[in-house]
Design brief:
3-stranded mixed β-sheet, alpha/beta
């Protein structure tokens, strides 16, 4: 029986969170007996690596933005190792709260990821100087009436994931910018065998429309079920909606003014884009 693999990428900035929250929550909630955990290392310090015991740490060259070059290095690793399913997941702003092995077994021949609840203008922001003129135009046209997927959690069969990685790294022309990976990844998956994941498996706090509650540091849905994968998204630390985010009963306070202000902003953008779509 082939094993599955979980990839994440990290540097020293997020290495403490990776060891103390991401990995701890994974091991305490997910049966990893049939899973290899691989950390792509873009500058972890020695103390952090010591605390990441029991996982495979792969030293990588940091010659671009991590969100982009990780696809090159995941592809390289998969070309030399054999797996059934891949989970590519962010390492600096995600915690696990329950087992996710069932998602490795569902729709195994398809890409799986979560749609954002709001229309987000990724193509408009990142296409102009990151792709060829032909690709930039194609992406803007393709995404003008579509929601996008959140690339922080992607399940896929290993062979198809290699194809995705190849497309991302050959299509992006500016690997130093934050963001273009989202466009290339979205375009490829939505044009191939794809199945939408339930948002429980990438519960992005800022962009979800679903009700949730936080009790003793644990995220629950409106029916009091633990949310399996919680994602405290936000490029800047001040923009992330959860203060003291992590795994533990003393963690996770909602930044109430920021949360509702951002929710209003996303709703406005969503309404504007929906109105343009209806014309």
């Amino acid at each position: 029986m082939l094993k599955n693999i979980i990839f994440t990428a990290c540097d020293a900035k997020y290495g403490d969170f990776l060891a103390d929250h991401w990995l701890k929550s994974l091991r305490e909630n997910v049966d990893c007996s049939n899973i290899d955990i691989v950390i792509l290392d873009y500058g972890l310090n020695e103390k952090q690596k010591e605390r990441l015991n029991g996982v495979k740490i792969v030293k990588c060259e940091r010659d671009g933005h991590v969100v982009n070059i990780r696809y090159r290095d995941m592809k390289k690793y998969l070309e030399n190792h054999t797996y059934d399913q891949v989970l590519s997941i962010d390492g600096g702003d995600i915690i696990f709260q329950s087992d996710i092995n069932n998602e490795f077994e569902r729709h195994k021949n398809k890409f799986r990821a979560v749609f954002e609840d709001f229309y987000l203008p990724f193509a408009e922001f990142f296409s102009s100087d990151c792709f060829s003129k032909t690709d930039a135009k194609k992406f803007r046209e393709f995404f003008k009436d579509k929601k996008t997927l959140n690339g922080g959690v992607v399940f896929a069969p290993a062979n198809k994931f290699v194809e995705l990685c190849d497309y991302v790294v050959t299509t992006i022309q500016n690997m130093s910018r934050y963001g273009p990976d989202q466009i290339a990844m979205n375009y490829f998956m939505l044009n191939h065998d794809f199945k939408a994941l339930d948002s429980d498996y990438n519960f992005a706090i800022h962009t979800t429309r679903r009700k949730f509650k936080i009790r003793n540091g644990i995220f629950y849905d409106k029916n009091d079920h633990k949310i399996p994968i919680v994602h405290n998204i936000g490029y800047f630390s001040w923009y992330r909606p959860i203060r003291n985010f992590g795994y533990g009963h003393d963690r996770n306070q909602l930044k109430i003014p920021l949360f509702y202000l951002t929710r209003m902003l996303y709703l406005m953008m969503h309404v504007i884009k929906s109105h343009k779509k209806s014309k």
